[in-house]
Fold:
Amino acid sequence: MSGLVLDHLAVSYGLRPAVRGLTLHVKAGESVALVGANGAGKTSTLLALAGALKQSARISGTQTFEDRAFPWGDVRARLAAGISLVPEREKVFALLTVRENLRIGASRAVGDRVRVDDVLSWFPRLRERRDTLAGNLSGGEQQMLALGVSLIGTPRLILLDEPTLGLAVPVIEEFCASLRRLRAELGLSALVAESDSNWLPHLADRAVVIDRGRQVADFRRLEERDLDAIHDVMLGLSNTREVSHA
Ligand SMILES: Nc1ncnc2c1ncn2[C@@H]1O[C@H](COP(=O)(O)OP(=O)(O)OP(=O)(O)O)[C@@H](O)[C@H]1O
Structure:
């Protein structure tokens, strides 16, 4: 099966399970949303797929991308295959300029299909602000920079963690439009962790809902009635939690 195949991923921190047997398939060129409340296991899944989980985390299951298996924890092999984690926007280097951040991305990248100048041409706002310290950018600009850094090299699959969190509506619209355009232009696949179901149709082709590290629903389409159903599933899960905590 081509694309990304995650089979029975389990992650735990000490005795605490964070992901419990998650199986996922992202086809070549497809974007899948991983939807869940806080603590559902979204970030742990993305970090595992990027080879970037803390060494103290226990991990099992298998990951293949384009029919090749990857040992857990090997970031370099994943970068060489074009699997790239979009860093959280707070993780851009605040005391370096936009261009310097992109150059650091280039120094870590494998391959040069996408270069610093390509990113600056795709994001005119970053080009205008290329000599500005990243810490002085707006949240939306930092999110674009984080995406830009992850695209440098030979991107094939990007992993995004809550890209819309805390951004204003017009900024999210602009970000989603850029992402859609670049996915088409570069033939990128994506796995996008989201807790806000409203933006799913702008970010993904389908959605997998997880709770406490397990898949609870799979939506093959993201039309309005599917979004209502996702909303209901999320509401049901949060009510169950409240009852079990009462
Ligand atoms: N480094 C860590 N050490 C210990 N426990 C952790 C660690 N990272 C995450 N966890 C726990 O694992 C579970 C899943 O967390 P994870 O961050 O993967 O979920 P999430 O869906 O991304 O949630 P959020 O949106 O809050 O980040 C949670 O119970 C969390 O407290």
